[in-house]
Amino acid sequence: MASIVGKGVLHPYSQKLAFPEPVPVSCLPELMKLPEIYRKSIIPVRNGKVLSLDELLHDDDEIFVFIAVMGG
To answer: For the residues 6-11, what does the mean pLDDT come to?
Structure first.
């Protein structure tokens, strides 16, 4: 099972997910059941590297998910 660790405001969405087949990172917000307000602002990280939307998540991954900080 993959470990999805939400950081900060995303902590309540932390969970373990089973991926029988690799899943694109772009599916992560839906899989985590994130509210719409967070979906376009996440930064997924695996092994200290920020993941692009086309990379694949695997069943043995540990993914940290951060929220992008924005301001004016």
So the answer is: 96
